C-alpha cells in the first residue's frame, strides 16, 4: 500500500489577494483600477474568503485533509506606513485558531505577490528601505500571532521577478507585442505577458496612482534588476531573523517557482543556466532556513538552440503550459541534490475545466512525491494549488485551478470530485484509487 505517513501534511493553498476580496489598500487593487489597466478584470469581492474562511476550511477538513497554506495580507495589516490594524490581526488570529481547533496545520505566507500601496510609493521592491519595512511587518505579525504559526514562508516565489525579466527580454528580442502560446508557458502563475499593449497610457496612470515617476513603480512582479534580487533576499533574511528573535520555535522558509528543466542532446548548458538562475544562486541566502517551499507546474525542454517550443501534439493545460505532472518529482530530486533539509511542496496544480484531468494530475504528481519519499528525499508536505477557483492576477477569473468551484454571483461553493480524491490519497493512499 502506497500510503503517506500520518505526519505527512496534505492540503491546499490560497493567497490573500486572490481569494479574500476588497484588498483596497494594496498595489494590485490600484493597478487593477487605473486607466489602461493590464488586468482582464478587477478582483473586487474575489470569492469572499475573508468572510467565508470557516466554510472553506471546513470543506478541506471534511475531505480529510490536514494542512492549509494561506497568506496574511500586508496591505491589511499595515494599510499606512507604520500604522498597524489590530482588527486585521484579530481576523487572521481567528483563521489560525480555527485551523488549530480542527487539527489543520497552517502554513502561513507573509508576502504573496501583493504589497501595500504605500510601499510602492516609497520605492517598492527595488528600494533598500523595503528591507526594514518588511522586517517591521514580519516582527509585528509574529509578535501577535507567532504562537499559532508553526511554519512561515516569508516570501512567495522569490525568483518570479527574474523569470518575468527573462520573458520581457525575449519579447523585446523577438519584437513581439502580444502574448502567444509559446510565451504562455514561461510563467507558472497567471501573468499576461502582453506587457507592451497600452503601455503609454498605463504607465502614465501608474505614476499618477502611486505619486511617483512611473519608471519607479516597482511591484513585486515588476521586471527585476540584480539589485532588486539582492533586496528580495535581504528581506527574507531580515524577516527570518525577526521571526526567530520573537519565536525561535517557528520553522521558517521561502518558496521558489521551479520548472523541471530537461535537456535534449546539446541543451545541457541551457539547463544548467536555468537551474542556476532559478534556484542555485539563491542558496547562500537560505543556509539558516528550516525548510524550502517548492512550487512546480510543468517542465521546459531545452535543445542545442535553447528552449524547445511546444507543438500541436503537446498536451496543454488551460494556462497554456504542458500537462506533465511528473515534473514535480523531477524537481524534488534536483532540489534534494543541493538541499538536505525538509521540503514542502507549497504549490502544484492545474487549471482545467475537466475535473477528471485534475484528478489524473494530482495522482500522477503525488505518485512522484511518494517515489521521492521512498528514495529518501525529505519531503514533509504537499499543498495543492489551489483550494478555490480564484482571481488569477492579470488573467482574472477565467482560470480554474481550484478543488472547489465558486459561483461568484452568489459566492456559493461547489466542491469538485478532485477535493475528495486528494483527501482519499491522504487517508487511503495511492493504491486502489485511479490508475
UniProtKB/TrEMBL annotation:
PROSITE patterns according to UniProt: GLYCOSYL_HYDROL_F1_1
Active site (record annotation): 347
Enzyme class label: hydrolase
The protein's Enzyme Commission number: 3.2.1.21
Keywords recorded for this protein, A-Z: Glycosidase, Hydrolase
Family recorded in the similarity comment: Belongs to the glycosyl hydrolase 1 family.
Protein name: beta-glucosidase
Amino acid at each position: 500500500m502506497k500510503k503517506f505517513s500520518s505526519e505527512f501534511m496534505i492540503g491546499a493553498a490560497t493567497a490573500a489577494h486572490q481569494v479574500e476580496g476588497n484588498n483596497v489598500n494594496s498595489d494590485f487593487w490600484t493597478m487593477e483600477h487605473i486607466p489602461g489597466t493590464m488586468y482582464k478584470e478587477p478582483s473586487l469581492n474575489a470569492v469572499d474568503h475573508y468572510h467565508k474562511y470557516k466554510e472553506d476550511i471546513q470543506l478541506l477538513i471534511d475531505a480529510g485533509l490536514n494542512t492549509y497554506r494561506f497568506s496574511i495580507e500586508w496591505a491589511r495589516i499595515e494599510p499606512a506606513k507604520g500604522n498597524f490594524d489590530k482588527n486585521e490581526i484579530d481576523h487572521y488570529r481567528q483563521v489560525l485558531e480555527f485551523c488549530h481547533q480542527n487539527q489543520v496545520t497552517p502554513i502561513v505566507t507573509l508576502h504573496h505577490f501583493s504589497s501595500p500601496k504605500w510601499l510602492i510609493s516609497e520605492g517598492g521592491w527595488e528600494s533598500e528601505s523595503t528591507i526594514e519595512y518588511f522586517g517591521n511587518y514580519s516582527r509585528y505579525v509574529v509578535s501577535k500571532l507567532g504562537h499559532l504559526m508553526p511554519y512561515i514562508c516569508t516570501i512567495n516565489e522569490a525568483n518570479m521577478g527574474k523569470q518575468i525579466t527573462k520573458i520581457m527580454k525575449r519579447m523585446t528580442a523577438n519584437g513581439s507585442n502580444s502574448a502567444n502560446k509559446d510565451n504562455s508557458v514561461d510563467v507558472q502563475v497567471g501573468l499576461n505577458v502582453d506587457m507592451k499593449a497600452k503601455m503609454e497610457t498605463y504607465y502614465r496612470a501608474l505614476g499618477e496612482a502611486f505619486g511617483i515617476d512611473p519608471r519607479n513603480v516597482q511591484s513585486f512582479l515588476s521586471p527585476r534588476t540584480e539589485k532588486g534580487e539582492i533586496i528580495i533576499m535581504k528581506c527574507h533574511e531580515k524577516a527570518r531573523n525577526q521571526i526567530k528573535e520573537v519565536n525561535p520555535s517557528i520553522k521558517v522558509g521561502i518558496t521558489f517557482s521551479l520548472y523541471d528543466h530537461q535537456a535534449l542532446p546539446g541543451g545541457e548548458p541551457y539547463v544548467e543556466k536555468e537551474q542556476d538562475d532559478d534556484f542555485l544562486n539563491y542558496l547562500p541566502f537560505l543556509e539558516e532556513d528550516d525548510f524550502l517551499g517548492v512550487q512546480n507546474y510543468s517542465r521546459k525542454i531545452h535543445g542545442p538552440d535553447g528552449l524547445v517550443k511546444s507543438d500541436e501534439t503537446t498536451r496543454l493545460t488551460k494556462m497554456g503550459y504542458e500537462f506533465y505532472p511528473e515534473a514535480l518529482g523531477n524537481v524534488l530530486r534536483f532540489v534534494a541534490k543541493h538541499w538536505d533539509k525538509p521540503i514542502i511542496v507549497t504549490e502544484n496544480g492545474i487549471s482545467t475545466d475537466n475535473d477528471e484531468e485534475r484528478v489524473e494530475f494530482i495522482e500522477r504528481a503525488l505518485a512522484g512525491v511518494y517515489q521521492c519519499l521512498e528514495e529518501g528525499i525529505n519531503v514533509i508536505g504537499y499543498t495543492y494549488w489551489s483550494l478555490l477557483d480564484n482571481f488569477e492576477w492579470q488573467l482574472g477569473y477565467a482560470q480554474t485551478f481550484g478543488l472547489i468551484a465558486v459561483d461568484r454571483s452568489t459566492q456559493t461553493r461547489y466542491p469538485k470530485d478532485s477535493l475528495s480524491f486528494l483527501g482519499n490519497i491522504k487517508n487511503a493512499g495511492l493504491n486502489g484509487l485511479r490508475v
